[in-house]
Amino acid sequence: MLLRPRQKTFVDRSVAALEAEGNTLSVAPTGAGKTVMFSAILGRLVSGVDSKALVLAHRDELTAQNRALFETMNPDISTSVYDATTKSWDGQVTFSMVPTLSRDNNLSTMPSIDLLVIDEAHHAVADTYQKIVNAAKEKNENCRVLGVTATPNRSDDRGLIEVFTNVGDQILVGELIRSGHLVPPRTFIMDLGVRNKLLDLKKTGEDFDMEAVEEILNQRPINKAVVDTWKEKANGRPTVVFCSTVEHARTVSIAFEDGGVAAAFVHGSLSPTDRQRELEKFQTGEVSVIVNVAVLTEGWDYPPTSCVVLLRPSSAKSTMIQMIGRGLRTIDAEKYPGVKKSDCIVLDFGTSSLIHGTLEQDAVLDSALLDDVEPLTMDCRSCGAKIPLASHECPICGEQFGSEEREKEEREIEPLTQVEMMEINLLQQSNFLWVDLFGDNASLVSTGFEAWAGLFQFEDHWYAIGGRQDNDLKLLTSGPRIVGLAAANDWLNLYETEDTVHKTRDWLSEVPTQRQIRVLPKQNKLDFSLTRYRASALITFEMHKKAIHELIAAADQMVA
Fold first, then answer.
1. Is residue 400 part of a domain?
2. d(CA 65, CA 434)
């Protein structure tokens, strides 16, 4: 399995920070492949050496997922699990549940740990996590601590400086949008005449007073205007709506129904069975809109969702990103046949985008795309942590930065040319060479030893297809060209290795073999500039041309 180029940079930077500082927080949003990257970091640091690592998670399913992917990427490194049913430290890398391990009788059994990895590291300052971190440090003062999270800033404004003194790397949402691993949001900030009242709200505890929010927003004329706006901007799109209170969600769902739009709503008081029933209505298309109160903020994904409605403000930017993130997932064509998705409409009635800035404003590319392992950094003026220069807020303590701070730091370093305007060119950054089969940029193929992938344009749509030796073809995704390229590259990364990529690159300077020449299409047999690699791409396409056409036709017909 290969890492994407940006994932490799993330791994390199995180390892460098760990070795230099003894700890680091690395930030990677949904879609970046967080588990893949920390598995690569772990593998690099413990492989071939006499060291022991511990990976912490706060849910059983995360522990199982983390272990399974780590073993896939590092088959030669032994693992074990320490949870409520299996208490084993036998593996070189142990995966454990925090609620279980933090109990005194269990924690006393922990051996000396050389590397502690904390998944969902925004929880790291909680008492249960602190018990484990302190115990690990007591048993080995040189224990290094790696934290990984998608949303570092906590809603209670408590910083992570107790555990982490620096940020090894931070992948921005904008990077994933530009690389095709998330779809772009189209944000509309809506004012229904109550914006000033919402902006005057005060925090009560970790967030704004949601009862006060309901009082402002839960009015019949406003609810009708929300439905009318949705019909204008996003009619028919699978939509998730975030409300302030249960009563607010109930009346908003009724407003959609009164407007002729099938809707359901879920909240924390529903039983698991009832909640699942309502979610299934949404996932099967029985309803177009699902309304909720803080239930679907994290831990729930339905990738066909292509509209997010914010009917509440959020004092924590991470919460806003989590809510909008429900609509940014790309489509796996095998799981969701016939679904096309190119963007996500965000209707913000709750001022979150005004308070925190839209995701588009955060979608800034900096030195993260350069070949250098070392990112441009600045020191947080509040906590002193070393953080990436592109940060709009400190991932360690949550301190907000404006353009003045960044401009000041930029004046002190060698300026970069148009860094903020850079876009990821997957054709250039890919681990693989892509062949334009017919010179029209509408049929692209890349081949390896174990797999191949193609990207094909039909009318105004792009279809990514993956194949393996002696296996049926798979429609990976359909949508914008950049999303298709991302899916095709990820397919090749899944099955190829550094060794096979190196062997394939050798083909770039080699002439076609006699066997290739025999099976090449007639129009290519006398092309004396042909390389072995281009010949392989042409032959692959010819062998599977009929199946490719059938897959695309079936997918197009399904959508129609």
1. no
2. 32
- 194 and 269 fall within a common domain: yes
C-alpha separations of 262 from 75, 254, 293, 416 in Å = 48, 9, 18, 51
Does 301 share its domain with 240?
Answer: yes
pLDDT tens for each residue of 298-318:
668 899 999 999 988 775 677
Our CA dihedral for 415, 421, 422, 426, rounded to 10 degrees, sits at 170
Strands 93-97 and 207-208: unpaired
Angstrom CA distances, 450 to 343, 471, 496, 513, stand at 32, 11, 6, 19
Q: Which long-range contacts (CB under 8 A, 24 or more apart) does 378-386 make?
A: 378/405, 378/406, 378/409, 381/405, 383/159, 383/161, 384/161, 384/165, 385/161, 385/164, 385/165, 385/166, 385/167, 386/165, 386/166, 386/167
Instruction: Report residue 247 as tokens.
Output: 């009563």
The residue from 310, 341, 360 where one domain ends is 360
Question: Are 31 and 93 within one domain?
Answer: yes
d(CA 45, CA 114): 10
- For residue 409, the model assigns a pLDDT of 40
Report the C-alpha dihedral over residues 356, 357, 361, 362, rounded to 10 degrees: 10
Same domain, 167 and 195: no
Q: Is residue 61 part of a domain?
A: yes
Tell me the C-alpha distance between 545 and 401, whole Å: 53
Question: From CA 196, how far away is CA 176, in angstroms rounded?
Answer: 34
For residue 407, what pLDDT band results from cuts at 50, 70 and 90? very low
pLDDT at residue 539, rounded to an integer: 92
Residue 159: closest CA among 393, 391, 378: 393
Dump pLDDT digits (tens) for 359-381. Answer: 433 322 233 333 444 566 788 88
Q: How far apart are CA 473 and CA 456, in angstroms?
A: 14
pLDDT of residue 16: 95
Residue 381 located in a structural domain: no
The span from the CA of 383 to the CA of 113, in Å, is: 28
> pLDDT per residue over 230-256, tens digit each?
999 999 999 999 998 899 999 999 999
**Domains in the chain: how many in total?**
3
Sign of CA dihedral 172, 174, 178, 179: positive
Structure-block tokens of residue 227: 């439905």
- Total-model pTM: 0.81
Residue ranges making up the domain that contains 553: 426-559
